[in-house]
Structure formats: C-alpha cells, structure tokens
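Whiteboard transcription, Tuesday session. T.W. wrote the structure tokens on the left side:
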C-alpha cells in the first residue's frame, strides 16, 4: 500500500474545492432585476416572468399577465376612462379573462361575473389584482 504525501493531499483538496465551487455556482441563477438566487435557470426565468415582466411604468407594481397589466393601467392611471366612469356611468371595468368581452360598471359586478361565469373562487383577490398587483 502506498502512502500519500502532503503534496498529493493538497492536490486532492484543491480538486475537491474546485468541484464544490463549480457545483455551488452552477446551482445558483441570479435574477438581474432583484438579485434573488434560484436553483435552476427555469426557476429564475419563471420568477422574472412572474415578478418583473408585466410591471407598470407609472407605479412599478407587477401584474400576473399582460392583460391584467392593461386592465390596471386603464382602471388606475387612465384619467379619461375615470371621467367616463364617473360622469357618464360608462362600463370601464373589463373581464379578467382575455377572451371574454364583458364590461362592468364597477369591481363588484365584475367579481360576480368572474365567480358565476368563469368559476373564480370567492376568495380570489379581485380588486387587489388590478390595483396592487402581485
């Protein structure tokens, strides 16, 4: 049986450290927007899409989809639609479902529609989703 010398132990330790560093670095994908770290590229990409892709330029709030972002912009930042809603009673609240053309006078009518027609759960954050985002 051959004895290992100090130099050989040192070489093995350095090799092991390189493997550990490589594994550690490859397991962490960092979000370029907020710095959060993720175990895989797919998790990081999913985070970016959900947390940063549909953000409002007026208030920096993030929304779960482009459609909800546009609803937010119309309902919160569009002064013309606000005027129409207040002075003329125009239906300016649109359905959350992109393929549905229904429009409503207020959040409450939309909520009832989403629960009855599209089977949304009663505890869904109906108002918060377009005002404060995710």
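and on the right, the sequence the group agreed on:
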């Amino acid at each position: 049986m051959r004895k290992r010398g100090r130099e050989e132990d040192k070489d093995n330790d350095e090799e092991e450290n390189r493997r550990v560093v490589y594994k550690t670095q490859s397991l962490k994908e960092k979000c370029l927007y907020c710095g959060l770290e993720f175990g895989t590229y797919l998790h990081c990409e999913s985070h970016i899409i959900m947390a940063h892709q549909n953000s409002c330029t007026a208030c920096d709030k993030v929304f779960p989809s482009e459609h909800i972002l546009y609803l937010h912009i119309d309902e919160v930042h569009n002064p013309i639609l606000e005027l129409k809603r207040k002075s003329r009673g125009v239906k300016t609240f649109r359905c959350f479902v992109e393929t549905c053309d229904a429009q409503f006078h207020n959040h409450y009518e939309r909520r009832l529609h989403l629960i009855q027609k599209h089977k949304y759960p009663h505890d869904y954050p109906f108002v918060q989703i377009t005002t404060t985002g995710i």
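Someone added at the bottom: Residues 55-134 form one domain.
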